[in-house]
Amino acid sequence: MLQLGEERMSQTEVDVRGPKDQRSSLCGNLLDRGEREVEEEEDQEEVLGGEDCVIPNEDYDTDLELGDLEEAYDPTGYMEACEVLQVVPAYNFLRNMHNSELSMMHRCLGPQGTKALAVPLVTNTSILRLNLRDNWMEGMGGAAIAEMLKENCYITEVDLSDNSLGDHGAGAIASMLKENSTLLNLNLSGNHFTDRSVEHLGPALITNSRLQHLDLSHNALGEQAGQSLGQALSENTGLRSLNLAWNCIRGRGAAILANGLGVNICLRTVDLSFNGLGEEGASALGKALKENTVLEELNMGRNPIQNAGCFTILKSVQENPDSAMEAIYFSDITVNQDFEDLYRAVKEIFPALTVNHGGRIGTFRKAKA
User: Fold this and answer.
1) 205 vs 229: CA distance, rounded Å
2) pTM of the entire structure?
3) Which pLDDT value is given to residue 76?
């Protein structure tokens, strides 16, 4: 049943499947499994209210002013969960739990508040889009949401960005992706994920063919993560867009990632900006683009590939008559006249293609005497 620090919630206190006489032990198991996945975190100080969080004044109601809602009959079990977990109920949830979209950004829910919120979401059939960005839920809260998504078959979009989920949270999310067949859009940006995180997420992306949009930007994914993702992308048949911007994918990891993109048959948009991809990565990506016939948009901005790397990538598009490429971004990378000449030649073959770069070098001419 549900383990809450040193307290234990009884079955009648936590079960949330519909009215009270129909409740089961599902939520207790959900929260219990969430805690077991990150049990080592329980030795750390629990963040119950996110004391260090700063909440903007605008567009936010107070969760303290519940009025008669505290006394009202609550078939979801949310109020009971909040009482046992010793967190303040979120009035915003109670007010919007019957809408198709629930946005609870910057609420400082913390691990415990997130666990309480997961209880009613298990059986909620109204919410399709869930935004929990920046709530400092950590691995424990992330595990609770993951367990909830194993049971909920209505939610299609989830934003868990900036929540410090860490490697433990990534493991829980990966476990969920192997079972969930509803989720289409998942934002995991800014969660301190490392190569270890992708050891879990990679196999999950092979199993899951339903997820279409995945954001892993602003994490700490390195060379090993690039290799794992490359292997996953070579077999994935669901993703349409992948954001890996602001990571540390380079070297051999970048090369294997590029190989995976070359044989992937579904991805339409890929963002690899701000990754430190160099000559090796650009060369591998060039080879991949000679084979790929589905990728439409590629962002390589702010990578040290220089003019030579940009030229290699664009040349590969030119040599692929079946290329579907429509936009390439080389933001803040300067190119020379040879690149500009190649671009004009490629435009004759693919008139719809647009290329953005950081300007052309060597444009200044010696003044005539």
Assistant:
1) 9
2) 0.82
3) 87
